[in-house]
Design brief:
Elements: H1 6-14, H2 18-33, H3 38-65, H4 86-92, H5 96-99, E1 103-107, H6 114-127, E2 132-136, H7 137-149, H8 153-161, E3 165-171, H9 178-191, E4 196-201, H10 208-211, H11 216-226, E5 230-234, H12 240-252
Parallel strand pairs: 1-4, 1-5, 2-3, 3-4
Helix pairs in contact: 2-3, 3-6, 7-8, 7-9, 9-11
Bound molecules: adenosine-5'-diphosphate and magnesium ion.
């Protein structure tokens, strides 16, 4: 074979095997040193390409999910949140709830880790091959209103249909007008038994009509869909954010 392996390199490029192209000189050297049989050598190269593709696909899914920040489960301090059931969270991170098309709702006051847990679970889902999309509730409504103006609601609905998991963060902070409430209702109806949801909210369910233009019937119908297959986790601890900033302040005085 030609010293520079020109033909081999061009075949690997044509076949779109960039990881093999990059790694084969090293793997060839190691395998011939260790007298690895041909099959073992080929398997090693195939593994390298598969791993590379998986890493790339995960990176693409994480990007498409549009998380506003990086939060990992490994960074969540369960000792600081004794009311959060660690086992239940680890169980959710296996994504069985996505397979069952069921939902998760984190409720509780501000600063207790609802968004952190939602993003961390969303990232776990991306790593396991699921298509995920993050919105704040306000963003979601805004996206619908914009799509309506631009006559692209069908496209938006198709994007949602192609997601396995949608995160709706901070439901309850901003109340919606009639149109916004109806769009949210449409969204929850579309996701019902099709796409899993993780919702974070500071409001107990009885107060949800407030958010949905004061419409008890609409809020009721929406809750009915959201909570048909749901795990509700109420996080009742002191604000981690507040505690952390108090600690910092105490240190600095
Ligand atoms: P919420 O959504 O409930 O208002 P966040 O998830 O935004 O709260 O948490 C506020 C900040 O505190 C974030 O930076 C988050 O990473 C951090 N935080 C909250 N709880 C924990 C925890 N138990 N361990 C580690 N960080 C936490
Ligand atoms: Mg939050």
């Amino acid at each position: 074979m030609n010293e520079d392996h020109v033909l081999l390199k061009s075949y690997l490029k044509k076949l779109k095997l960039p990881a093999i192209l990059r790694e084969y000189p090293t793997v060839s050297r190691l395998c011939s040193q260790d007298n690895v049989p041909y099959e073992g050598y080929l398997q090693r190269l195939a593994e390298i390409e598969v791993q590379h593709r998986q890493t790339q696909a995960t990176a693409r899914r994480l990007k498409q999910a549009r998380f506003p920040m990086v939060k990992e489960l490994s960074e969540f301090n369960f000792t600081a949140a004794p009311r959060v059931n660690k086992k239940q969270i680890l169980d959710l991170s296996m994504c069985g709830f996505i397979e069952k098309r069921s939902n998760v709702v984190f409720t509780g006051p501000p600063g207790v880790g609802k968004t952190h847990l939602a993003i961390a679970l969303g990232r776990e889902a991306c790593k396991r091959g699921y298509a995920v999309r993050f919105f704040t509730a306000a963003e979601l409504v805004h996206t619908y209103l914009e799509a309506r103006q631009e006559k692209t609601v069908l496209k938006l609905e198709s994007q949602i249909r192609h997601s396995d998991l949608v995160l709706v963060d901070e439901l309850g902070y901003v109340p919606f007008d009639r149109m916004g409430a109806e769009h949210l209702f449409g969204f929850f109806s579309q996701c019902y038994e099709q796409t899993s949801l993780i919702v974070t909210t500071n409001l107990p369910f009885v107060e949800w009509p407030q958010v949905f233009a004061g419409d008890e019937r609409l809020a009721g119908a929406l809750l009915d869909r959201l909570t048909h297959h749901v795990l509700v986790m109420e996080i009742l601890s002191d604000s981690y954010r507040l505690n952390a900033s108090l600690k910092r302040k105490t240190k600095s005085v």
